[in-house]
Amino acid sequence: MERPHNFSAGPCILPLEVFEKASQSVIDLDGSGLSILEISHRSSAFVEVMEKARSLALEHLNLQNKGYKALFMQGGASMQFLTTAYNLLEKKAGYLDTGTWASNAIKEAKNFGEIEIVASSKESNYNFIPKNYSIPQGLDYMHCTSNNTIYGTQMKSFPDSDETPLICDMSSDIFSRDLDFSRFGLIYAGAQKNMGPAGATLVVVKEDILGKVSRTIPSMMDYKLFIKKESMFNTPPVFSVYVSMLTLEWLSRNGGVSAQEKKNRAKSELIYSEIDRNSLFEGFTGKEDRSMMNATFTLNDESLASRFDELWKSANINGLHGHRSVGGYRASMYNALPLESVEVLVDVMKHFEKTL
Ligand code: PMP
Question: Any idea which residues bear N6-(pyridoxal phosphate)lysine here (predicted)?
Answer without folding.
Answer: 193
